[in-house]
Design goal:
mainly beta; about 0% helix; elongated
Amino acid sequence: YYFTQWPSGAVHFGADGEAWRDAVFKTLPEFPDVKVATLTVAKFVEFVVRDDANNWDNNNSKNYRLELAGFGDTEAWVLKDGRLGRVSTGAPILIVSDLDRTLFGHEFDKPTGRVLDPG
């Protein structure tokens, strides 16, 4: 996944020592600023991204690199604002927070076993 306002483009990449080639972006209709490309890589990939007007994102001339040894057969990665991150493909999780102390049970004090005054 690549976040950009470019209307189109591609990932230009070299994988596992093979010749460099392009993987054309697809745009997600529901998220027009998110582009998607599929790369076939076994262990290592070096890449840059470009649009069709020849604008390049090449990590300040250092290229982007991923070592994929130890990851599964199918991995999803995101590149946004120059930072690469792995997308979790596991089961979804729910995080619940009680920052405003409005959840049921927040008024119970475990150490004393008493119900606290919410006021």
